[in-house]
Design goal:
about 55% helix, Ybab, Chain: A, alpha+beta, 3-stranded antiparallel β-sheet, rod-shaped
Amino acid sequence: MNIQNVMKQAQKMQKDLEEKQLEINKKIFPGKYSMVNIEMYGTKQLKSITISKDLNLASEDIEILEDAILIAINNCMKEIDLELEKIYSSMPKIPGLF
């Protein structure tokens, strides 16, 4: 095995991963649970939260709403992680390096 070829392959893989990460960072991922919709960038930075206007919330419903927001955000982060896992698993493996 030629070490120069291995290094070139590793550098190419690193560049490909960096490009894919940049693509994901720019992508907007939706998250939804019940009456809450969110959008989050691939960086896991929250872009927006939208709460259904059809709700007439009483103060006791605030806790339910907070739980819904939390679940929606976590669902969105899971979608981002799944997208990253697809990319990582599709990358070729170089014996002895990864």
